[in-house]
Amino acid sequence: MDLVRWEPFEGLNKIQSRINDLLEETFGRSRFPHLAGPGTWYPPVDILESKEAYAIRAELPGMKKEDFNLELNDGTLTLSGESVFLRPRRPSRSRSVSA
Predict the structure, then answer these.
(1) Where are the beta strands (DSSP E) in 1-99?
(2) Alpha carbon distance 22, 16 (integer Å)
(3) What residues have CB less than 8 Å from 73, skipping those under 6 apart?
(4) Contact 80, 41 (CB under 8 A)
């Protein structure tokens, strides 16, 4: 008879892992991981259709029209661009004391 190690929290770890996977797929990861590279982001996009035209609404905080490209090739609409993340400067914590 083989000894089997009992892991009392193994079930909870599996549930946590599944929840993490679900949240990452929904909010953080690409829907097409084989196409995505590091730093790839898919913004929320609404596509509205009328008889005359399509309207595309994308959430691109901090971006201007000049920061992204919209292309139509072979029936595929591609929204691409680049955003530079600048960290805000923290105020210095140094002090100056004069006597």
Answers:
(1) 45-49, 54-58, 68-73, 76-81
(2) 10
(3) none
(4) no
